[in-house]
Amino acid sequence: TILVLDFGSQTAQLIARRVRDQQVFCQLVRHDLSAARIREINPKGLILSGGPASCYAPGAPQLDPGIFDLGIPILGICYGMQVSCRALGCEVKPGKSREFGHTEMHCDTDNALFKGLPKSFTTWMSHGDRVENLDTQFVVLAKTSDCPNAAIRHREKPIYGLQFHPEVSHTQHGEHLLGNFIRNICGCDGTWKISSFIEQQITEIRERVGKRRVICGLSGGVDSSVTAALLYQSIGSQLTCIFVDNGLLRKGEREQVEYEFSEHFKTDLHVVDAADRFLDALAGVSEPQAKRKAIGKTFIDVFKDEARQIDDAHFLAQGTLYPDVIESGGNPDGPSATIKYHHNVGGLPAELGFELIEPLRMLFKDEVRRMGQELGLPDGLIWRHPFPGPGLAVRCLGEITKARLDTLREADAVFTEELHETGTYRKVQQAFAVLLPLQTVGVMGDARTYEDVIALRSVDTDNFMTADWSKLPYDLLQRVSTKIINSVRGVNRVVYDISSKPPSTIEWE
Ligand code: XMP
């Protein structure tokens, strides 16, 4: 195991991810985890993440200096390096200039960390502080024109520091460098697999749950399905699933969930038909955050009513992923601002009084998919594009009515079907239709029409935190447009969204 001490960086979880990509188990822990506790866990290495603060600022996250005496190899990245140097008695000061972005770095490759790397390559920097008077304790391994100690090694202990970020894709050879640390310096053998993670989770869930009952909200998507499958493998019929049909689902979604469930699980499924309750709560609401809040609140109410009927329920399992946590600004140590209120993250546990089980909280989407495959879930489900908790409501811009939702649902089904038929569905990461809150003029036969506009959105992305619009073939777009206009009543125009994230988001609301 490698532990990442999280000092609040946006990329802390990404570091863990990069380590797992090299088949070494890696987990995020608090930055101030005590040396005694770390000794008990007995990891093969520690990586200290970056962070938004200056380590000399009042209240800046610190570490237990005892970690330097454990004999465990340590790699400090950016803030992680500065806070270590400071704890070891060096001085950290504001730099003369902030260094940000791509920088050419020159390094000494005659050491375990830079072994096999070129003498100079591009790294990605983002810092304002610098460390001074290092020489008594550290040797410099690399420099850039602005930073005389871009990489350092302690003279006696296995402590390394990098001023740049090896975990981001903008740094060349970052994977090689992290690999050198975890294999050459920490001595990890790289035999961890997603199946080991599943086994570990199953054991933990069994121990934690005992004979008690767990309820799990199913949404039809891969995250909640994988969560349910994992729970089912751990505790079998002690699991009860709840599926809320909020009337905001894609075409055929409810039927598909019912079918897949009966194929894979021999335990209770409660399907709640709550479309009217959601429509009532959304009546007259057009502002996006207000929609999300109304849906989140209704979801809690509906869920609570249903859960109350399961008397012995003690735990609630949720398929929250890492990007959900970060986009809701929910990382307690993190600096990330709330961009959208994600209804599957905020509020539920406290309101419901259940203990939470979130086995996917540290994973990225593609890791969850690999887990789903390992757990034997069908391909159609595993490769289903993500669908937001508030569903079609945030794709039906403006006021929500049953008729408008039906129009959107039909258009979306035409688009999705065409993507499937042309083998394009698996090549893009998320594609859907959006119903705009405006009418435009058209001509059909000899008559003037004044009808709705559908926007198509399709994105290519690794992690949904950044995304590019998909360069879909023109003939595909043309077929989809013609089919929607011909077959979906009340639509006379189709447009294609060519914005990337950032500055746009994937969803329109
Ligand atoms: P954005 O629009 O923020 O979307 O670029 C990033 C990813 O998150 C999904 N998304 C949500 N998922 N509840 C969810 O479970 C939500 O409230 C929510 N809002 C956006 C979105 O579909 C995309 O995959």
TrEMBL record:
ATP binds at S219, G220, G221, V222, D223, S224, S225. One of its GO terms (molecular function) is GMP synthase activity. It comes from the Bacteria. Keywords: ATP-binding, Glutamine amidotransferase, GMP biosynthesis, Ligase, Nucleotide-binding, Purine biosynthesis. PROSITE patterns: GATASE_TYPE_1, GMPS_ATP_PPASE. Residues 192-384 form the GMPS ATP-PPase domain. GO terms for cellular component: cytosol. Pfam families: GATase, GMP_synt_C, tRNA_Me_trans. It is an enzyme of class 6 (ligase). The active site is at C78, H165, E167. Pathway: Purine metabolism; GMP biosynthesis; GMP from XMP (L-Gln route): step 1/1. Signal peptide: none annotated. It catalyses: XMP + L-glutamine + ATP + H2O = GMP + L-glutamate + AMP + diphosphate + 2 H(+). Its EC number is 6.3.5.2. Catalyzes the synthesis of GMP from XMP. Homodimer. HAMAP family: GMP_synthase. This is GMP synthase [glutamine-hydrolyzing].
